[in-house]
Every structure is written in C-alpha cells, then in structure tokens.
Amino acid sequence: MSALTGKIVLVVGGAQGIGRATAELCAERGAQVIIADMNEAQGAQVAAATGGMFCAVNVADEDSVRGLFAQVRERYGKLDALLQTAGVLRGPYIPIEEFDVAMFRSVLDINVLGSFLCSKYAVPLLRESGRGVIILVSSIASVAGSSSYAYGTSKGGVDALGVTLAAKHEVDHIRVNVVRPGNISTAMKLSVIAEDAQRRGADYDRLVAGSGLGEPQGVAQVLAWLASDDADYVRGVLHTR
C-alpha cells in the first residue's frame, strides 16, 4: 500500500507544469486529488484523468480561496496535504528603473499573497486531520537571483512564509516544507528562455539545449513523497535540480 493511499491532497496550480505532474503522481500513488487552478479547461482535464475534483480559483483573491476550501470541506470533510505550486514570472530582463510597480505587485499577489491565503484556509482543515502537510513551492531564484525583480523577491517571501508557518504550526502537527526547484522545463521557464533569445538575437533551441533543464516529473517525485507520511521527519527548505 502506498503512503499516499486514502489521503486527500489539494494541488493548487495543478493544471500544468510541476503542479500537474505532482497531481498525476499523487493520484497514481493512491491519493484523492483536488486540482485547483485559474485554467479551467486544462484543470478539468487533469481532474478527469486523475479521477479527482477540479475547482477554479484565483489565489490572489481571498473570496475565491475561501470558496475553494469550502468546496473541499463540503466534498471530503477533511484535508491531508496542501501543495501550493501556483506561481507566475513577469518582467524578465526589465531594468529596475523601468520595472512597473503594478506588475511587481501582481507577481507578489499571486506568489506570496496566494501562498499565504491558501495556507490560511488550509490550516483549520489540516489541524482537524491531526497530521497535516503544507508544501510551498519556491525557487532557487530566491537565493541565486532571477531574471525578474518581482519573481526573485516573491520567492524569497514564500521561503519566509514557509519557515514562519512551520514554527507556528508544529504544535498542530502540521508539517511545513518549502521546495526550491532549479531550472525545470515548464511553460513559464521556456517563455523566459524565448524572451532571452529574442533579446539577444540568439537561437532559441540552442539556448534550451544548453540550459540543462530538468523535467517537472522529477520535482513531482519530491513533492509527492513530501506529501506522504514517509517524509514525516523532514524539516525546512529543500532544493531540487
């Protein structure tokens, strides 16, 4: 029997990329998976393929997030693990003196506020389960720098949020981990490479080939394991390829 068998796992940002790969793997390992995303078409497809439920959500809007968790409670009555993988990267290669404040705020709203709101409404359900898990997806950009001022800053905020959650909710038997993926072949990363190629007049395919990108399924292996009871003794922030 898999360590995820019978677990109720919510994957926010599960319509594509790392989130989708994680949702598919969690379902394969026996979890009941809930897919939450703004992309309703792709999210519904993933939910159908994994035998789970799809919920549309805007993580930057508190009413939307509150509604998501109300649906989870109504349908399942509990939650065992929250995996918050939703995030955006905007404004790569824009100099700081030209970086639009509204764009900066929009990235923080999704990446940091979104992680906060999902955690805020997950904690009561996880506390009731008696042994819950929160996994926030950050990025190596939080410590190594980013092509975008907003993205790098936001992922530093996700790191700090995770550390604070872990300290405050250990008493509730809620384990919190932050995962920092490296360069992974996602639509978001490939779009940044495409912009870099255009900016430099370089060959896109050659840049992709030289980037050493990992696959979303590799990170999914880590996230799915962290969501299980097998990872009960793991603490803190983890790096992946």
What's the rounded overall pLDDT mean?
97
Q: Report the CATH superfamily.
A: NAD(P)-binding Rossmann-like Domain
Helix content: 40-55%
CA distance, first residue to last residue: 28 Å
Determine and state the CATH class.
Alpha Beta
How many H/I helical runs? 9
State the total count of DSSP E strands. Answer: 7
Relative strand content: 5-15%
The side-by-side strand order for the widest beta sheet comes to 3-2-1-4-5-6-7
Unreliable spans are none
Q: What count of structural domains? A: 1
* CATH architectural category: 3-Layer(aba) Sandwich
Largest sheet: 7 strands, parallel
Shape: globular
Model description:
The chain is α/β, with parallel strands linked by helices. The protein has a single domain (8-183, 216-228), classed as Rossmann fold, CATH 3.40.50. 51% of the residues lie in helices and 15% in strands. It contains nine helices and seven strands, in the order E-H-E-H-E-H-E-H-E-H-H-E-H-H-H-E. Strands 3-2-1-4-5-6-7 form a seven-stranded parallel beta sheet, with helices on both faces. Helix 2 (40-50) links the parallel strand 2 and strand 3. The chain is globular. The mean pLDDT is 97.
